Amino acid sequence: MPARSFATHRQRAAPPARCGHCRETDPIKVVEMAGAENQALHAVCDSWCMASIQTLSDTQRRILARWALACAERVVPLYDGDEAGRRVIQEAVARTRAYGEGKADTADQIRKRFAAGKAAKSAGTAAGASAARSVAQAASVAHMGAHALGAAAYAVKAVDLACEDEPKASAAEIRWQVQQLGDRQRMALRELPLLGTDLSGPLGPGLLCTGILGATIRAIQAELG
C-alpha cells in the first residue's frame, strides 16, 4: 500500500483542538493539571471538534476500545497507587469494556473518561503512572478513536520503565499489540492520520509525538502500512 502523504492530511486537518481555558491540546493532561474545583473552567474537551478525522465513527471507536483496553490491561498490574486509585482504575476498565462490547452509553463514557488519568497522580512510580494513563487513553477512545494509539503507547512506556534491564521488552510489547489487531481494527486505525500531521486531536504535534510514546505509535502505524 502506498505511503500516506503529509500533504493529504494537512489539507484535511481541522484547527487545533484546545481546552478553552488553558489552551492545552492533550485532554488527559488538562485533567491532570486541573484540580477538581477548577475542572469546570476547562470545558475538558466536550467542545473539541467531533468532526475531526481522528474521531472515527462510534462503531469504529467501540471496536478500537476493545484493542486499546487489551493493551492497557496488560500493564494494570504495574499501577502502584493507593487503594482509591486502584478502584478508579478498575472502574475505568469496567466502563471501557462495557463500551467496547456495546453495553454502555457513549455520552456517559465520554463524561467519565478522565478518571483514570487523575489516578496517575497517586502512582508511586513512573511506570505506574504510565499504566494509569494507558487506561485513561483507552477510556477516551469513546471520544476520539485516535486515543487507542495513545493507550498502546502508554502501555509500552510503562513496560519500558518497569523493565529497564530488558532492552527488548518494549519492542516485544509492540509486537504483541500489533498481533492482537483484528481486520476491522486495522481498517479503523488506517483511517487515522499519521502521527504529527493533523492538529485536530491527540495525534497532533504534542506529547504523543515525543520519546517512546511517539516511537511506539510510529511503529504501529508503519506495521499497518
What does this structure look like?
The protein is mostly helical and 225 residues long. It has one domain (53-224). Helix content is 56%, strand content 0%. The protein has helices at residues 6-12, 27-33, 39-42, 58-73, 83-100, 106-111, 115-119, 126-139, 147-162, 169-179, 183-190, 211-224.
Specify the structural class: mainly alpha
Round the Cα radius of gyration to an integer and report it.
Answer: 16 Å
Proportion of residues in helical segments: 55-70%
Q: What coarse outline follows from CA principal-axis ratios?
A: globular
Mean pLDDT, to the nearest integer, reads 84
How many domain units?
A: 1
The residue ranges in which pLDDT falls below 50 over 5 or more consecutive positions are 1-25, 30-49
State the end-to-end CA separation. 6 Å
Number of strands: 0
How would you spell out the order of helices and strands? HHHHHHHHHHHH
Q: How would a textbook summarize the main sheet?
A: none
Q: Count the helices. How many?
A: 12
Strand percentage lies at under 5%
